[in-house]
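Chapter review: from sequence to fold.
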Amino acid sequence: MSEPILRLSNVEAAYGPITAIRGVSLEVPRGKIVTVLGANGAGKTTILKTTSGVLDPVTGVVELEGRRIQGMAPDAIVALGMSHVPEGREVFPFLSVRDNLRMGAYLRKDKSGVAADLEKVYDYFPVLRERRDQPAGLLSGGQQQMLAISRALMSRPKVLLLDEPSLGLSPLLVKEIFEIVRRLNKEEGVSILLVEQNAKVALETADYGYVLEVGRVVMHDTSEALMNSNEIRESYLGVHAEDSRGRNRRERARATS
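The token string follows.
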């Protein structure tokens, strides 16, 4: 992989006496999408919280563009170029859509730039333009997810942390949101660290992936290699090894016919 914009080295984090992640090391190359896969409770969300400063690591190093950021306040980390879209969206329900978006730019002083970025996120998510004067709490789950991503973009992040963006959404909305995630990566150059329960969508979206089990990284490789791994196919994609071998034989037969 190319030079990382984000690096975690031997990071351990805990909630009181309970250790959630153990010796986690991972990298996000500049301009790439990296996903973290794992079962519920594996520690995926803890990785994002530790990276964004919501949770201080017990040990280890977190670096953004080569600068150590562990122990820094979350707003200081935002100012350095990282935004976190938490699981469950966490929009401000009684504020309007527009005011939610402005909250994402609370550290910025360039009013013209903020106005331009507001129009940009409206272009990515037209429904937010239509609903801009409505309280965010009246939006559907999918629209709230769009708002949460857009609010994070208003800080002009270099790195975007996405926690379970597909949670509770219909397949159609999941497809729409991940298409926009890909566009943001390609068009805006935003590097993305993605935690996602839907392993198929995550691997189809990401360039590289890490597999987490009981707080430890047990496997990492390109998304293509992970998609073709029998272990990943059985554990996360619902495809048995025998089915996979049979499909491969059929594909080879078609290719040679």
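Two observations follow directly from the output. The mean pLDDT is 91. The longest strand covers residues 4-15.
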